[in-house]
Structures are given as C-alpha cells and as structure tokens.
C-alpha cells in the first residue's frame, strides 16, 4: 500500500524536464488540481496535450480541478478582497469528494498533485489540499514531498517545522485564504454590491 504523495508545479518546465522529474520520483499518476488546466505560454500543459504527453510515457492523468482547484466557481467562497476562503472551501461537499478520491488513489498509486506555481508555499496544492490532509492525519507530513524545478525534494514535515519556528510568539490571527486575490476588480465590485444589498 502506497501512502506517499508528491506535488509539482509545472511553471515554465519543458515537456522533457517535466517528464524527467516524474520518472525520477517514480510517479504513476498526475492529479491535475488546476481549476483552469490551460497555459497560454506553455501549451504543452494544456489538459488535452498534457494528457496525451503523459499517456505516451505511461503515466495516468486524472483531472481534479473541479473538486480541488484553487479557483472555485461559487462566489460565496471568496472574501471581499477576492481571496479564496480556504476554511469555507475545505468544508464544501465538492472539495470533500475530491479529497476522498485523492485518498483512495493514494492507497494504490504514487501520485503527484499538479498545479502551475513552482513554489509550493505559494500554491493551494500545499496551502489548502496538503494542509487539510495533514490536519486529518498529521502522520502524513513526513510522507508528502514537493518536487522542485531543480529536482530537489522538500518534505512537508520540513516546511511545516520551518513555519512553526518562524511564527512570532504573539502573532495576529490571519485568515486562511489564497495568497493572492483571484477575482478581477469587476467581480469584486459585483460581489461587494450584492453583499451590501
């Protein structure tokens, strides 16, 4: 039974380098957690092209962006500044359904969660998905690894301990949300006006 999970951000990787990183880490399944699995600048990461590329090399491709993507469709899951409210999102039936599929897959396959951000500290794959998994089972922290573009691996346990050590003694409580505002200015205005009615 495989109880290990990897994450990877495609960033500007070439197809060959991306495949090499998957091979070196013996990945079997790429679970795409991008809400919009397309890239204008790097079309080889568009869902259809990526699926074909992975299949040609013997990897399975599983789209999970609808369930676990960092840009949910429901406006209720965004705060007034356009950030995704991770606390709310993590409790939705759709997100829980995606987590269940992921957990089931982790029992059978060596999976890499795919998103676009290279740095896992800036991406919902770690800040939301991995956090929820580890809150449910803290023992997973030393079984989850983030594949970096240079080929190095960062363990979730290492990142977690670093965060804990860097926390100020009296830190203000920050909302658990996406690092960047995701909604456009127009969407934010519409959301604020509808919430003030």
Radius of gyration over all CA atoms, rounded? 17 Å
Helix-strand sequence = EHEHEHHHEHEEHH
Shape: globular
| CATH fold field value | Protein-Tyrosine Phosphatase, Chain A
Oligomer: single chain
Q: Which CATH class?
A: Alpha Beta
CATH architecture: Alpha-Beta Complex
- Biggest pleated sheet: 6 strands, mixed
List low-confidence stretches.
Answer: none
Largest sheet: spatial strand order = 3-2-4-1-5-6
Give the topology, please.
Elements: E1 5-9, H1 15-24, E2 29-32, H2 47-56, E3 60-63, H3 65-68, H4 86-89, H5 93-108, E4 111-115, H6 124-136, E5 144-147, E6 153-155, H7 156-166, H8 185-195
Parallel strand pairs: 1-4, 1-5, 2-3, 2-4
Antiparallel strand pairs: 5-6
What descriptors fit this protein?
6 strands, Protein-Tyrosine Phosphatase, Chain A, six-stranded mixed β-sheet, globular
Brief sketch in words of this structure:
With 197 residues, this protein is α/β, with parallel strands linked by helices.
3D structure, described in words:
With 197 residues, the protein is an alpha/beta fold. The protein has a single domain, classed as Protein-Tyrosine Phosphatase, Chain A. The protein is 40% helix and 13% strand. Strands 3-2-4-1-5-6 form a 6-stranded mixed sheet, sandwiched between helices. It starts with a strand and ends with a helix.
């Amino acid at each position: 039974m495989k109880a290990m999970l990897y994450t990877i951000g495609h960033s500007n990787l070439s197809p060959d380098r991306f495949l090499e990183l998957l091979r070196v880490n013996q990945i079997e399944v790429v679970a795409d957690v991008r809400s919009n699995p397309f890239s204008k600048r790097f079309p080889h990461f568009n869902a259809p092209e990526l699926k074909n590329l992975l299949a040609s090399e013997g990897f399975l491709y599983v789209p999970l962006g609808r369930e676990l993507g960092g840009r949910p469709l429901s406006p209720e899951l965004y705060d007034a500044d356009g950030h995704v409210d991770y606390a709310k999102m993590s409790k939705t039936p759709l997100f829980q359904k995606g987590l269940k599929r992921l957990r089931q897959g982790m029992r059978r396959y060596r999976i890499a969660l795919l998103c676009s951000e290279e740095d896992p500290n800036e991406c919902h794959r770690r800040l939301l998905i991995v956090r929820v998994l580890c809150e449910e089972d803290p023992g997973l922290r030393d079984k989850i690894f983030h594949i970096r573009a240079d080929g190095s691996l960062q363990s979730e346990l290492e990142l977690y301990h670093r965060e804990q050590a860097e926390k100020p003694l009296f830190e203000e409580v920050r909302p658990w949300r996406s690092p960047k505002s995701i909604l456009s200015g127009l969407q934010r205005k519409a959301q604020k006006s509808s919430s003030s009615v």
